[in-house]
Amino acid sequence: MTELAEAPAAGREGAITRIPHWIGGQRVNGTSGRSGPVFNPALGVQTSAVDLASVEEIDAAVKEAAAAFPAWRAMSLARRAELFFRIRELFHAHREDLAKLLTAEHGKVLSDAMGEVARGLEVIEFACGVPTLVKGDFSEQASTGVDVYSIRQPLGVVAGITPFNFPAMVPMWMWAPALACGNCFILKPSEKDPSASLLTAELLKEAGVPDGVFNVVHGDKVAVDALLEHPGIAAISFVGSTPIARYIYETGTKHGKRVQALGGAKNHMIVLPDADIDMAADAAVSAGYGSAGERCMAVSVLVAVGDVADPLVEAIKQRLPKVKVGDGMQPDSEMGPLVTREHRDKVASYIASGSDQGAKIVADGRETAPDGDGFFLGVSLLDNVTTEMDAYRDEIFGPVLSVVRAASYDEAIGLVNDNPYGNGVALFTRDGGVARQFQFDVAAGMVGINVPIPVPVAYYSFGGWKASLFGDSHAYGPESIHFYTRGKVVTSRWPDPSTSKVDLGFPQTR
Ligand code: NAD
Fold first, then answer.
1. How far apart are CA 6 and CA 16, in angstroms?
2. Are 34 and 3 in contact (CB under 8 A)?
3. Where does residue 335 rank: exposed (0-12), middle (13-18), buried (19+ CB within 10 A)?
4. Longest dimension (CA), the chain
5. Strand (E) positions, 97-256?
6. Which residues on neighbouring strands pair with residue 422, listed in sequence order?
7. pLDDT above 70: residue 5
8. How many CB atoms lie within 10 A of CB 464?
C-alpha cells in the first residue's frame, strides 16, 4: 500500500499521481484507503498509486450502470451506430496518447503500443456495424395468420476484468461489443497499468456516451469478488491467467452469471524440414520476443522437426544480438522491459532452471539486459528443452524461447495436442497438404499457417481451447454479439377477429 499524494501531480518529477475510479461519468477518488503502486518499468520507479475499490464502491458503480441502462438500451440502433462512428474517430485521433500511456506503465515499445491500439480500433469498427449484427430472423405464416420472429436484447450491466499485457486492446474487445449491443459496462482493469482505462472513459464521454454507461473500478481480489457476487451484474468477461480464469468461471457461474474467461497459453510453433528457414527464424524472433514475450499469443515453444533444428537454431542465434532492448519511448528500441521487477526475476529463473534441468543456453538474457533500474531482461534462447522441464511446462510470459527437437510431424503435433493449453499454434511448411491436415488435427483455437501470431481479425472471434478458455464464447467478433445479448422469440397472431375462439389444446402449427 502506498501513501497517496493529496492531488494529482502528473508531470512533477518524483511525485506520485493518484489514479481514481470512473463512476457515473466522472473521476471518483477511492474511499477504501487502499491503493496499489504503478511503475514505469523502463525506469524502475513508481509513478502512480491506483485506488483499490471496496465492496461498497463496486456497488456504487453497479447502481450507476443500472440507472443508465433503460435509456441506453432504448437508444435507436441508428443513433448507437452513429455514436460508435464518433467513438472510432476519437480513439483514432488519440491513438498516440493511449499508446504513450501503455508504454509508460506496461513498458512495451511505442510502435508495439500503437499496434495494440490499432488492433483494438478494429473491434470498435466492427461494433459500428451493430444494426446488422443484432438482426433477428422472421418467419411469415409459421401457422395460419401466425408470424414468428427472433430478437436479441442486451443483458443489462456487464463487467470486464482484464490483464496487464493489453491494457487498451483487451478492454476494447469487451466494452465495444457490449456497449454496441446496449449493455452498460464496468471495467476492472489490471492494477499494474490502469491509466489507459481512464483515458478510454474520458474519450467515451467526449464522444457522447451517457454517464453511467461505462464505468471503471480499479482493484484487486476484493473488487473482483464483489463483481463476481453482485446480483446486479448479468455477465462477466475475463482475460488473464489460467488459475484466475478458472476461478472467475466457477465463481461467476455459481452466482448465476454468464461467464467467458480466457486464460493463459503455451503456444507452439512447429517448423517442418521443408520450411523456409529464414522466414521461420524471422517469425520466431518476432513472435517469441515481441512485447518481451508478454503476449498470450507469443510463441513460447519452437518445435524443430528433423534436421531443420541445427540450421534453425543457428539462424535465430544470428538474429538475437540485433534485437535492441531499451526504454520503449526511445524510437530505436525493439523490446522493452518486463512489467514488474518480480515478474522479471521470475522469468529469469527459467533460464537457470532450464540449464539445471539439462537445456542448453544458446542466448542468455541475464547477460544482455541494459544497465539501470528498469525491469529489463535480454532475449534468451534455450535449446534441447524437453517436456519435463519447468521452462516447457510453465507459461513463462517473458522473452525466453524454448526449442524442442522432434523426430517427426506426428511427434510435433502430439506435443501440441497433449499440452494443457490450446490458445494459438503455428506451422511453418511449404507443403499445403500437410498444412491442411494440421488445421484438421490440431487441438487449439487459433491456427497460423506460416503466420506466427494468428490473432483473428475483428470480424472473426478470438479464443483458445482447453485451459486457455473457460466458457463457451470466444471474445469479439460474432461470438461477442451472442455473448452480450440474449435471444427472445416472438410468436404473433393478427387473426381475423371473426375466427377468434378459445382453444385449450397445446399450440399446433399445422
Ligand atoms: P492475472 O490473471 O494475474 O490478472 C488478470 C486480472 O485478474 C487482473 O485484473 C487482476 O487484478 C485480476 N486478479 C489477479 N489475481 C486475482 C485473484 N486472486 N482473484 C481475483 N482476481 C484476480 O493475469 P495478468 O498477469 O494480468 O496477465 C497475464 C496473463 O493473462 C497470462 O497468463 C496471459 O496468457 C493471459 N492472457 C490471456 C489472453 C487470452 O486471450 N487468452 C490475453 C491476454 C493475456
1. 10
2. no
3. buried
4. 90
5. 138-143, 146-154, 157-161, 184-188, 214-216, 235-239
6. 465
7. no
8. 25
Q: What is the pLDDT of residues 50-93, one digit of tens each?
A: 999 999 999 999 999 999 999 999 999 999 999 999 999 999 99
- Fill in the amino acid letter for 368: T
Element (H, E) at 18: strand 17-19
- Amino acid identity at 279: M
Cell numbers for 306, please give them: 528433423
Q: What is the rounded distance in angstroms from the CA atom of residue 18 to the CA atom of residue 3? A: 10
Rounded CA separation 317/358 (Å):
19
Q: Ligand 1: residues whose CB is within 6 Å? A: 161-166, 170, 188, 190-191, 220-221, 224, 239-241, 244, 262-265, 296, 395, 397, 423, 464, 468
The residue assigned the cell 527464424 is: 281
Which helix (H) or strand (E) element contains residue 322?
none
| Ramachandran angles phi, psi of 259, nearest 5° | -135, 135
How many residues are recorded in the chain?
A: 510
CA of 152 to the centre of ligand 1 (A): 30
Cα of 244 vs centre of ligand 1, distance in Å, is: 7
HSE-CB of 340 using CA atoms within 13 angstroms: 12
**How far, in Å, CA of 51 to CA of 60, rounded?**
15
Q: How many helices (H) and strands (E) does the chain have?
A: 17, 23
pTM over 0.85: yes
Give the pLDDT confidence of 457-494 residue by residue, as tens digits: 999 999 999 999 999 999 999 999 999 999 999 999 98
- Which atom number of ligand 1 is nearest to the Cα of residue 469? 41
The closest alpha carbon to 476, from 130, 77, 203, belongs to: 130
- What's 14-38 look like in SS3? CCCEEECEEECCEEECCCCCCEEEE
Asked if residues 127 and 494 have their Cβ atoms less than 8 Å apart, the reply is no
Q: What ranges in 357-498 are assigned the alpha helix state H?
A: 365-368, 390-393, 409-418, 432-441, 477-483
Query: Is there a catalytic annotation at residue 128?
Result: no
Phi/psi at 341 (5° precision): -65, -45
CA atoms within 13 A on the CB side of 391: 32
Neighbours of 122 (CB within 10 A): 17
Nearest CA owner, ligand 1 atom 10:
190
Contacts by residues 133-140 (CB-CB < 8 Å, ≥ 24 positions apart): 133/180, 133/181, 133/478, 133/481, 134/77, 134/181, 134/481, 134/485
Give the pLDDT score at 8: 36
- List the one residue out of 191, 241, 202, 196 whose CA is nearest residue 46: 191
Distance between CA 438 and CA 123 in Å, rounded?
29
- Ligand 1 centre to CA of 193 (Å) is 12
In order, the DSSP letters of 98-117 are: HHHHHHHHT---HHHHHHHH
**81 has which bridge partners?**
none
Q: Which atom of ligand 1 is nearest to the CA of 190?
A: 9
